[in-house]
């Protein structure tokens, strides 16, 4: 399986999608829509970062397993 | 291939299921007292109720057929579209959700009027309605295609019968009925989908789950185990095209423009409950839903590889769902799985019908009616509108039946109606400089360039990422990137050439004011002091004033002051806020553990005599 079949989609997904995610995080933090001084809001920062890493990890794991099963 | 049409037992199971859902939904009609209840469920429900009902809305009847097909052809990468929604969650949870909740907009088009002008509202109304009613027609068509083979009655008659069945419970109950029937149907379709997966694993493992799982994994090729498709090949299923069509346009469309979904979040008791519902939905429920809708295809592929001859070589991919269900299940169970398909249709259609009806009432009927109508008249109009929406959807079914496949009809829809609205709402929220003229130019000029691209695929080529152009059929998914670019391009150019609204006129309508929205919603300074919840008995006070009166000590425990907002609900958590009411703290009294409510609160909350209430300070 070539690069375009395995890791390229992953890099594109979390590269372009990652830009959208980071811009979104920066915007909500800079506009005070999410205030890290609020205890309740601070927890959401962790949830948002966890969500991104959760999906990236899950996709990476399955790509790794698929390559390993060749 | 001649696929199974079920037994008498299967037909009975499906009929019983329809009767059960109609009765269940009609029961909740008593909770719809006005149009706010009818459309938004009275802003009272817990996050878990919203989450499960969103599942049922997101998984349409077309999902089972569509994703099983792709799963059979391409393996685990069929899950791509269910697992690419996290990128816009920060902007949704902390940008759009508080804006729609606290500004109390009743529809997406209403936001367009407040943010831009009335012309933008009417254009948005037209595009949103076309999108939603067409979507309902596709749902009717998908289920009717499956059911008419089972019952042997003509396709269009099946469509009409399904429309009547969903009308019965929606007509009376509105959003509350939709939420509770979707709760029931969400559980049923998740259970049925996972049960089908279990049966398939058992089949592959000769009734042993562990060896079945091993056999399942071993009988998929390495390519079929990959979670993402090939970057740009083949033209009808490639990663980059689907990323732009679904991961970008689809995700923004679903989170920011789906009136049905927005109304569901507005039925949450608070913005924070809405955030919880959204997070759990995307992090937990969507991956499960991906398995639910795709597994028939994966199991089919593993069976095809492991046990040659069970599934024929020439099996049409669209028939995989029914064929695999028939192989791995027994009579009665087959009916149950098809009933889950019904659950998927009914729950998606009812949400869209309720949403379309909300738009017609809020964006056409109210603005155009000169004489003020009573709540009862408006509620009656809303109910009959939902019937009208279904009639139009039924009339549209033959048009969609003329497409080569339901998948194609659905794709055409998304690519045609989503991009202008996506660009309009997104730039409206996140760019103050975006003007009314710019949004109208986006709708009209953007649509014109999109149509131009449909007829001249060479315009899309620079965006194609190396995807092959199919002669006579053009580009499929990557067209979404072209559509977004041309709509955004027109919008940005016109915005830069025109004069924006003043900050004062945009107050509360962009992300830059989200931190002020609570105060705007409350009408006074926000009390953020963290207090405890209070368990209280209730008594009815004969006042018409919208206040609830607690003892001084109870208010101190809740850290509440007169004028703060309060939410009370029946103490039984599993009701999820069904019996609840919002109000304002009134002047305190001296009887600890007692709250005085007025007859309107009692009527709205349907509280049970003798049962205590849980009260919490909102802000």
Give an account of the 3D structure.
The complex is a heterodimer of chains A (70) and B (619). Chain A is mainly α. Helices cover 77% and strands 0% of the residues of chain A. Chain A has one domain. Chain A has helices at 7-30, 39-68. Chain A is elongated and about 50 Å long. With 619 residues, chain B is mainly alpha-helical. Chain B folds into two domains: 8-494, Sodium/glucose cotransporter; 529-617, Barwin-like endoglucanases (Beta Barrel), CATH 2.40.40.20. Chain B has 22 helices and six strands. Chain B has helices at 8-27, 35-40, 47-58, 61-74, 89-102, 108-115, 118-151, 155-204, 209-218, 222-225, 239-257, 259-266, 271-306, 320-328, 333-368, 375-401, 406-430, 436-455, 479-497, 517-522, 552-558, 599-605, and strands spanning 534-540, 547-548, 565-570, 580-585, 594-597, 613-617. A six-stranded mixed beta sheet of chain B has the order 2-4-3-6-1-5. In chain B, helix 12 crosses helix 15 (333-368) and helix 17 (406-430) runs parallel beside helix 19 (479-497). Chain A binds chain B through residues 1, 4-6, 8-10, 12-13, 16-18, 20-21, 24-25, 27-28, 31-35, 38, 40, 44, 47-48, 50-52, 54-55, 58-59, 62-63, 65-67, 69-70, and chain B through 76, 83-84, 86-91, 93-95, 98, 217, 222-223, 225-233, 239-240, 243, 247-248, 272, 275, 279, 282-283, 287, 430, 511-512, 514-515, 528.
């Amino acid at each position: 399986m070539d690069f375009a079949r395995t890791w390229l989609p992953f890099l594109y997904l979390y590269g372009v999608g990652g830009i959208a995610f980071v811009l979104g995080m920066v915007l909500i933090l800079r506009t005070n829509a999410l205030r890290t001084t609020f205890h309740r809001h601070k927890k959401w920062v962790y949830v948002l970062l966890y969500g991104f890493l959760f999906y990236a990890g899950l996709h990476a794991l399955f790509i790794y397993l698929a390559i390993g099963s060749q | 291939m001649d696929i199974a049409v079920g037994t008498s037992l299967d037909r009975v199971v499906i009929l019983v299921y329809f009767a059960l859902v109609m009765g269940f939904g009609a029961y909740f009609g008593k909770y719809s007292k006005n149009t706010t209840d009818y459309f938004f469920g009275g802003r009272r429900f817990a996050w878990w109720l919203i989450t499960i009902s969103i599942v049922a809305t997101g998984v349409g009847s077309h999902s089972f057929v569509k994703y099983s097909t792709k799963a059979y052809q391409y393996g685990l990468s069929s899950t791509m579209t269910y697992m690419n929604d996290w990128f816009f969650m920060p902007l949704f949870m902390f940008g759009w959700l508080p804006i729609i909740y606290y500004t109390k907009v009743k529809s997406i088009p209403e936001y367009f009027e407040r943010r831009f002008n009335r012309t933008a509202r009417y254009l948005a109304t037209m595009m949103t309605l076309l999108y939603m009613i067409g979507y309902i027609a596709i749902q009717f068509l998908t289920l009717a295609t499956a059911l008419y083979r089972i019952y042997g009655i003509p396709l269009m008659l099946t469509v009409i019968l399904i429309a009547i069945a969903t009308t019965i419970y929606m007509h009376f109950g509105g959003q509350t009925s939709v939420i509770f029937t979707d709760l029931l149907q969400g559980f049923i379709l998740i259970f049925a989908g996972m049960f089908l997966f279990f049966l398939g694993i058992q089949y592959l493992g000769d009734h042993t789950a562990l060896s079945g799982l091993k056999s399942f994994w071993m009988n998929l090729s390495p390519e079929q185990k990959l979670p993402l498709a090939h970057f740009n090949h083949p033209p009808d299923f490639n990663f980059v095209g689907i990323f732009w069509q679904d991961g970008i346009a689809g995700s923004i469309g679903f989170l920011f423009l789906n009136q049905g979904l927005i109304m569901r979040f507005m039925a949450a008791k608070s913005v924070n409950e809405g955030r919880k519902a959204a997070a759990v939905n995307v992090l937990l429920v969507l991956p499960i839903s991906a398995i639910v809708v795709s597994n028939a295809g994966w199991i089919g592929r593993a069976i095809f590889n492991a046990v040659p001859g069970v599934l024929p070589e020439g099996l049409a991919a669209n028939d995989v769902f029914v064929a695999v269900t028939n192989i791995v299940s027994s009579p009665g169970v087959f009916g149950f799985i098809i009933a889950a398909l019904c659950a998927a249709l009914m729950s998606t259609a009812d949400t869209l019908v309720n949403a379309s009806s909300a738009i017609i009432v809020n964006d056409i009927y109210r603005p155009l009616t000169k004489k003020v109508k009573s709540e009862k008249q408006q509620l009656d109009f809303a109910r009959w509108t939902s019937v009208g929406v279904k009639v139009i959807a039924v009339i549209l079914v033959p048009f969609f039946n003329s497409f080569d496949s339901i998948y194609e009809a659905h794709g055409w829809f998304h690519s045609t109606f989503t991009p202008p609205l996506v660009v309009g709402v997104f730039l409206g929220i996140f760019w103050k400089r975006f003007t009314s003229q710019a949004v109208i130019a986006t709708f009209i000029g953007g649509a014109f360039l999109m149509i131009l691209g449909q007829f001249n695929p060479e315009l899309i080529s620079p965006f194609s990422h190396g995807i092959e152009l199919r002669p006579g059929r053009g580009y499929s998914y990557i067209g979404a990137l072209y559509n977004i670019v041309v709509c955004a391009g027109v919008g940005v150019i016109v915005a830069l050439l025109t004069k924006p609204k003043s900050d004062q006129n945009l107050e509360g309508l962009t992300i830059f004011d989200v931190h002020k929205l609570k105060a705007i919603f409350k009408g006074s300074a926000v009390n953020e002091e963290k207090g405890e919840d209070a368990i209280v008995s209730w008594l009815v006070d004969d006042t018409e004033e919208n206040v609830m009166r607690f003892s001084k000590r109870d208010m101190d425990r809740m850290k509440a002051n007169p004028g703060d907002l309060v939410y009370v609900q029946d103490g039984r958590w599993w009701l999820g806020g069904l019996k609840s009411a919002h109000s304002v703290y009134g002047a305190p009294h001296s009887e600890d553990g007692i709250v005085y409510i007025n007859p309107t609160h009692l009527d709205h909350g349907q509280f049970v005599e003798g049962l205590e209430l849980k009260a919490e300070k909102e802000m």
